[in-house]
Design brief:
By secondary structure, the protein is an alpha/beta fold. It has a single domain (11-356), classed as TIM Barrel. The chain contains 14 helices and 9 strands. It has an 8-stranded parallel barrel with strand order 1-2-3-4-5-6-8-9, surrounded by 5 helices. Strand 7 (236-238), helix 12 and strand 8 (260-269) form a beta-alpha-beta unit. Helix 8 (130-147) packs parallel to helix 10 (181-192) and helix 13 (285-304) packs parallel to helix 14 (347-357). The longest helix is centred in the first third of the chain and has 22 residues, at 2-23. The radius of gyration is 21 Å and the shape is globular. The structure holds ligand G3I. Ligand G3I is lined by residues 75-76, 118-119, 159, 203, 234, 265, 323.
Length: 358
C-alpha cells in the first residue's frame, strides 16, 4: 500500500500545482511574488478583512490573502455595534471564524476595536446615565478582550479618541466618563487580556498637533503604570498629498516612547476629495504610475524604520471592496490598494515588491 501511494505522489503534486495555477491565473497565485515573503525580515504585512473574506465566499481572494498576508484586522466584525448589539447580547460568530482562520493560516490577528465613538450599539447611542455608560464600558472590554486573549495577537484598545488639534474628541465616553477613560480602557484591557498586545490607533496622528495629543495620551497611560504596547498610524492618505516628513518624524517620536509603531490602515485615495467619479471605467496610466511611485516611496521610508515598525496593514484586499468607493462621496470608483477588482496585482504591487528587495 505504501509503495502505491508513493508512486502517485508526483502525479498528485502535478495536478495540485496545475489546478492552483489555473484557478488563480493572473491573480496573486503562482509566479506572482508574495508581500509577506518579501518583507519577512522587516515587518508583518496585513490586510483588513471584511465579512465576505471571513466567510470565505470569495475563493479567489482567499488564495490571494493566504499567499500575500501574515496579519489581518477585522474591518468591521469586532466593532461594538456588531459584536455587542444588545445590553446582554454578544454575537461572536464572525469574530470567532476570523480567529480560527488566522490560526489555520498563520495570520496574526489584530483585533479592532474595543472603544470607538463610531459603530456603537444602538442602545448606547443616546444613553444619558453615566453609570450605565460605565457599566457598558467595563463589561464590553472585559467580556470581549478576555474571550480572545491568547487567540489574537493584539487589540486596538482605543480608536480615534483625538481631534485634529490634539484635544480629546467629544465622544459619549469623554462626556460620561471624563478624560481618564482612555487610561481606564487600557487598564481594563490589560486585566482582561494579559497575553495580548494593546495599542492606541488613530488617523492623522502624523500631523504635529494631533501627534502631540497622541504623545500626551501615551505618556499619561505610561505614567499611571498601565501597559500600552504600541501605536497605530492609520495611513489613509491621498495621492499627491502623502505627508512623508510628518510620517517619518512621527515614527521617530512614537518609537522614542518605547512602544511599537504600526501603519494600520494603509490606502491611497486616487480621487480628489469632492470630484464626481472621474475614472469609472479604469485608472489612466499616468495615475497608475503615480500610485506606484508613491507606494514605493512609502515602503522605502518604512524600510528605513524597519526596527521601529512591526506591521504594515492595508485597509482592504482589493480596490472593489475598499471603503473609499463610498467615502467621502458614495458610489465612486476608487483605486487605493495594490490589487485591482479582479485581484490582479497592480503596478503599485510590483513597486512595493521592488522596494522590499532592497
Ligand atoms: O452591515 C450593514 C448592512 O446590513 C447594510 O445593508 C449596509 C447598508 O449601507 O450597511 C452595512 O454596514 C456598513 C458597514 O461598513 C459594513 O459594510 C456601514 O453602512 C458602513 O458605514 C460601514 O463602514 C465602515 C466604516 O469603518 C464605519 O465607520 C467601513 O466598512 C470600514 O472600512 C471603516 O473602517 C474604519 C476603521 O474601522 C477605523 N478607521 C477608519 C476606517 C475607515 O473609515
Amino acid at each position: 500500500m505504501k509503495v502505491q501511494i508513493r508512486a502517485y505522489v508526483p502525479l498528485i503534486t502535478t495536478i495540485l500545482l496545475f489546478s492552483d495555477c489555473s484557478t488563480i491565473k493572473n491573480t496573486a497565485g503562482g509566479g506572482v511574488p508574495s508581500l509577506k515573503e518579501t518583507y519577512k525580515n522587516d515587518f508583518l504585512i496585513g490586510a483588513a478583512l471584511g465579512a465576505r473574506y471571513i466567510q470565505r465566499s470569495d475563493l479567489r481572494a482567499d488564495s490571494l490573502i493566504k499567499r500575500q498576508f501574515n496579519a489581518a484586522t477585522p474591518e468591521n466584525v469586532m466593532k461594538a455595534g456588531i459584536i455587542h448589539p444588545g445590553w446582554n447580547t454578544y454575537r461572536f460568530e464572525l469574530a470567532d471564524q476570523l480567529v480560527e482562520y488566522g490560526r489555520q493560516n498563520n495570520i496574526r490577528i489584530n483585533a479592532h476595536t474595543l472603544i470607538w465613538h463610531n459603530q456603537l450599539p444602538g442602545f448606547l447611542r443616546n444613553m444619558e446615565d453615566a453609570d450605565s455608560v460605565r457599566a457598558f464600558f467595563e463589561s464590553h472590554i472585559s467580556t470581549v478582550a478576555s474571550r480572545y486573549d491568547g487567540k489574537v495577537y493584539s487589540w486596538d484598545v482605543v480608536n480615534e479618541a483625538l481631534n485634529e488639534d490634539g484635544t480629546l474628541r467629544n465622544s459619549i465616553f469623554l462626556q460620561k466618563l471624563g478624560p481618564a477613560y482612555v487610561t481606564e480602557a487600557f487598564r481594563l484591557a490589560g486585566k482582561a487580556a494579559p497575553h495580548t498586545e494593546l495599542y492606541y490607533n488613530d488617523y492623522g496622528i502624523e500631523n504635529p498637533r494631533k501627534r502631540a495629543g497622541a504623545v500626551a495620551l501615551v505618556k499619561k497611560i505610561q505614567a499611571a503604570g498601565i501597559r500600552i504596547d504600541g501605536i497605530g498610524i492609520q495611513g489613509h492618505w491621498q495621492l499627491g498629498k502623502v505627508p512623508y516628513k510628518n510620517i517619518e518624524e512621527s515614527i521617530r517620536v512614537f518609537s522614542g516612547l518605547g512602544i511599537r509603531v504600526m501603519i494600520t490602515e494603509l490606502d491611497l485615495s486616487v480621487l480628489p476629495e469632492h470630484a464626481a467619479d472621474p475614472y469609472p471605467h479604469g485608472l489612466p496610466d499616468s495615475v497608475q504610475n503615480n500610485l506606484a511611485r508613491e507606494y514605493e516611496t512609502l515602503f522605502r521610508l518604512f524600510l528605513q524604520y524597519r526596527k521601529q515598525i512591526s506591521r504594515v496593514t492595508f485597509w482592504g484586499v482589493e480596490d472593489g471592496h475598499s471603503w473609499l468607493n463610498d467615502w467621502p462621496v458614495k458610489g465612486r470608483t476608487n483605486y487605493p490598494l495594490l490589487f485591482d477588482r479582479n485581484d490582479v496585482p497592480k503596478k503599485a504591487f510590483y513597486s512595493v515588491i521592488d522596494a522590499g528587495k532592497k
